[in-house]
């Protein structure tokens, strides 16, 4: 078998694995969108759809991880190809965890709806941060498809805005619960939802950092934002 054929088959393997990552990402993105719709409408049926989708996402994570291991064993990649496969393994873990957070939101929505406590708190900040989290995850997947480090750096910057919305909501919620202690149990449910959204943003940020690692060969996790941007834009 010629070297050219081997190279072409390896490229096909990498493209197949990458396409499966994007397919999994699309499922998780749909989970998050539905979870936020369930929260907005306090719709138990939509919440159930989010919960049921989790098994599919989990299965995809295992299948893609196994395929990455098989490609590494068969092809013994080096340099950027190896970084791509390692980053894919980490990316699907973050996607699966983002799906877990969507499932948590759905379960909290069901509990609030069943208890008749769904409309007792103004959750404008939660809704806004949920839209932002879904957006940056979508953009992270798009940046992954294009291996766009400039877009990845912007995603890391934008995650900070989600954190700020979360902190603003927590401050409002604490005040709300102090003024009326009877609402503490409901307030805590909304706090857990807000935290789940914040974590979705964190997972999108992690995926963006892996893109920089693939392209630049530098692990920018736990680095300052200035360092990360220098690597992404260099």
TrEMBL record:
<dbReference type="InterPro" id="IPR038078">
    <property type="entry name" value="PhoU-like_sf"/>
</dbReference>
<dbReference type="GO" id="GO:0030643">
    <property type="term" value="P:intracellular phosphate ion homeostasis"/>
</dbReference>
<protein>
    <recommendedName>
        <fullName>Phosphate-specific transport system accessory protein PhoU</fullName>
    </recommendedName>
</protein>
<keyword id="KW-0592">Phosphate transport</keyword>
<dbReference type="InterPro" id="IPR028366">
    <property type="entry name" value="PhoU"/>
</dbReference>
<dbReference type="Pfam" id="PF01895">
    <property type="entry name" value="PhoU"/>
</dbReference>
<dbReference type="GO" id="GO:0006817">
    <property type="term" value="P:phosphate ion transport"/>
</dbReference>
<comment type="function">
    <text>Plays a role in the regulation of phosphate uptake.</text>
</comment>
<keyword id="KW-0813">Transport</keyword>
<keyword id="KW-0963">Cytoplasm</keyword>
<dbReference type="GO" id="GO:0045936">
    <property type="term" value="P:negative regulation of phosphate metabolic process"/>
</dbReference>
<dbReference type="GO" id="GO:0005737">
    <property type="term" value="C:cytoplasm"/>
</dbReference>
<feature type="domain" description="PhoU">
    <location>
        <begin position="130"/>
        <end position="210"/>
    </location>
</feature>
<dbReference type="InterPro" id="IPR026022">
    <property type="entry name" value="PhoU_dom"/>
</dbReference>
<comment type="similarity">
    <text>Belongs to the PhoU family.</text>
</comment>
<feature type="domain" description="PhoU">
    <location>
        <begin position="21"/>
        <end position="109"/>
    </location>
</feature>
<comment type="subunit">
    <text>Homodimer.</text>
</comment>
């Amino acid at each position: 078998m010629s070297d050219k054929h081997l190279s072409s088959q390896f490229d096909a393997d990498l493209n197949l694995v990458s396409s499966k990552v994007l397919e999994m990402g699309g499922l998780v993105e749909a989970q998050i969108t539905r979870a936020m719709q369930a929260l907005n409408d306090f719709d138990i049926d939509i919440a159930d759809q989010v919960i049921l989708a989790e098994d599919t996402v989990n299965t995809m994570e295992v299948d893609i991880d196994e395929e990455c291991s098989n490609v590494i064993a068969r092809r013994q990649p080096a340099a950027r190809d190896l970084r791509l496969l390692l980053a894919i393994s980490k990316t699907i873990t973050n996607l699966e965890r983002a799906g877990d957070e969507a499932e948590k939101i759905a379960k909290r929505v069901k509990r609030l709806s069943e208890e008749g406590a769904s409309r007792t708190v103004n959750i404008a900040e939660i809704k806004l941060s949920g839209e932002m989290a879904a957006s940056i995850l979508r953009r992270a997947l798009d940046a992954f498809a294009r291996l766009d480090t400039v877009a990845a750096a912007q995603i890391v910057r934008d995650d900070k805005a989600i954190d700020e919305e979360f902190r603003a909501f927590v401050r409002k919620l604490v005040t709300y619960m102090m003024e009326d202690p009877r609402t503490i149990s409901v307030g805590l449910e909304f706090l857990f939802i807000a935290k789940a959204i914040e974590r979705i943003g964190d997972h999108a940020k992690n995926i963006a950092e892996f893109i920089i690692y693939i392209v630049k060969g530098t692990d920018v996790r736990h680095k300052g934002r200035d360092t990360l941007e220098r690597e992404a834009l260099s």
